[in-house]
């Protein structure tokens, strides 16, 4: 209950000062700070609530997919492969430099620098020998939180020629109340979204509570059923569900050399965001998409966070989601064996040197 009250206060405050995606950032910041200030109070946010928020986001993402957008995305598949590889190479290069500067083993920094796939990377780190799990988790979570702050501020800055008023107009267009037409097929979408989320979790699909509902919504849309945009207050609620959970993830008190680690995390996050900006400029020259859409497509965050921002600025949700989805699946299926191969090579070189 305490966590919920503080999260709501954060959402209202950030909305009052006209921050972008206020219910996500506000709840995240207030819960993070509150949990550190009121140490005698137990802060708790069930994963089931976070999962409910992800189902709502997955449904919203799925609505943006039509047959025509899927054809367009098929044409961009080579670009998805290319830019995913380039972004991961940038992450590897940044990790190598940080490893040299900090004297932290390269495998640990590399796993903390992989953009996206927090749960998969942390699970993989637990299986690897010689990996500092605390550092990996801190780098991953701190990058996620940095992206929550820096990406919205960048998107709404003069660099991208987008204003908060534009975002507000888009939010208003989504509707502020219940549309009677929403109830026509919403029960079917709700059942399918929840069912596919649970099946995805059972088969250990990456971000199952996001991808399952998204896939279900896409299939229903393509089969002729009409989905409708959710009211604004429901989308705000899903932001709060996610933001509160993220705010409790970061636990800096578990770190040694806190100042050093915070500095490395900042360097890592800023460098990755900088690389994604440069790559997004290259992507706009290859395809007829806006700078905002290309930046959110390549931003080293997750689909759910980028979707919130995209809705505020009227970005192309289908393109953004597909680039983010492709990277998520690539990280889930291809990165673990690649990392094992790299780590074996590093260990082999060390043994040879000895």
From TrEMBL:
GO terms for molecular function: aminopeptidase activity. InterPro entries: AbrB_dup (IPR017516), AbrB_fam (IPR007820). It comes from the Bacteria. Keywords: Aminopeptidase, Hydrolase, Membrane, Protease, Transmembrane, Transmembrane helix. The chain crosses the membrane at residues 12-33, 54-74, 80-101, 144-162, 182-200, 207-226, 262-283, 325-343. One of its GO terms (cellular component) is membrane. Pfam families: AbrB. GO terms for biological process: regulation of gene expression. This is Aminopeptidase.
